[in-house]
Design a protein that fits this description.
Layout (H helix, E strand, L loop, with lengths): L4 E3 L2 E4 L4 E4 L3 E3 L2 E7 L2 E8 L4 H11 L9 E9 L2 E6 L4 E6 L9 E6 L11 E2 L7 E2 L20 H13 L2 H6 L3 E6 L4 E7 L2 H14 L8 E4 L5 H9 L4 E4 L5 H10 L2 E7 L2 E6 L26 H4 L9
Parallel strand pairs: 5-10, 15-16, 16-17
Antiparallel strand pairs: 1-4, 2-3, 5-6, 7-8, 7-10, 8-9, 11-12, 13-14, 13-15, 17-18
């Protein structure tokens, strides 16, 4: 069975010294072939961790499925004698020990309800660090998100969520070389994923949310990776109105975010961040209250009209 990280020695050099370091952890990267209804679909280059989340999130993002009800079964051949098996209609989700073969390792076999497969000739090879692909149009022709009731975020809230993201990045702490993304309801992290490919982390987050029945709409998406056009497209597919990164967005991502009414926050590090578009969803932290009022339980800082008791459409 492939592991998320491997022990691999290296030699550390300075100008005048060389020191051997043995047993150092190096992040894993493996090849996984996705078959849908017995047809070869795509090959993932990814970290071998929560591959079922990756497959589910990718199929949902690309319109192969609309929900878990469209999944008849999903098998992930993790080792010659180990298979992850999901069959939602049967209430089955478990890792089984059963006879298999070496050639099957690295195969993801999905059976879904009958529907056409998108045209592979329309795929776009993007700048994802593992060669991410998307079949969705990046032309910005999609309508803006109807998120008028989306909550407002405060800088202090964003800073604390990013700190929590770093605290939960277990693979990064062990070996580095990996991206981390998470979905938040404003106060806590609802789903989190790590992978060598930043685009893979978003598909893993979406797949986890699908499997655990976590709503993605109206949430905050946090990532350590660059916000590219593909990342922004995946966020829009999740109907996420706020995307936060510790690094930069691309110009095309900002243009798409402006067209789709998505708030893009970059370089969220320490106690500073840059808002590239959608500033109307960002409200400065209020001074300490003296009238006994507290922040809402969901962690969002509401617009002043809502604080005074006027509920938004989303709250209703």
């Amino acid at each position: 069975m492939w592991e998320p990280q491997s022990d691999w020695g290296y030699t550390r050099y300075t100008r005048h010294t060389a020191e051997r370091v043995d047993g150092a952890a190096v992040i894993g990267e493996t090849r996984w072939k996705l078959y849908i209804n017995r047809q070869r679909w795509i090959t993932f280059m990814c970290t071998p961790h929560n591959i079922h989340h990756l497959a589910l999130g990718f199929m949902l993002a690309e319109g192969v499925i609309d929900g878990l009800d469209d999944v008849l079964q999903l098998k992930v051949y993790e080792a010659p004698n180990q298979i992850y098996w999901l069959a939602p209609a049967l209430g089955l989700e478990k890792t089984l020990t059963m006879r298999g073969c070496e050639e099957s390792v690295g195969v993801v076999d999905a059976r879904v309800t009958g529907r056409p497969i998108p045209d592979h000739s329309a795929k776009i090879l993007t700048s994802g660090c593992s060669g991410g692909v998307t079949f969705a149009s990046l032309s910005g022709e999609h309508p803006p998100l109807d998120m008028s009731g989306a909550p407002v975020v405060a800088p202090g809230q964003v800073f604390e969520l990013m700190r929590e993201l770093y605290r939960r990045a277990a693979l990064y702490r062990k070996c580095g070389g990996v991206h981390t993304s998470a979905l938040s309801g404003g106060q806590t992290l609802l789903a989190i994923a790590e992978d060598v490919g930043r685009h893979n982390t978003l598909d893993k987050v979406r797949g986890q949310c699908l499997l655990e029945n976590v709503e993605t709409e109206g949430r905050i998406l946090l990532t350590t990776g660059r916000i590219s056009s593909e990342m922004l497209t995946k966020a829009r597919g999740m109907r996420v109105p706020v995307v936060v990164s510790r690094t930069s967005p691309t110009a095309l991502a900002v243009e798409l975010a402006a067209a789709w009414d998505i708030t893009v926050i970059g370089y969220a590090r320490g106690n500073q961040m840059n808002v590239y578009c959608g500033e109307e969803r960002v409200q400065l932290d209020a001074p300490a209250s003296t009238d006994g009022r507290t922040q809402p339980e969901d962690g969002y800082l509401r617009p002043e009209t809502e604080i005074e008791g006027v509920r938004s459409n989303q709250d209703g």
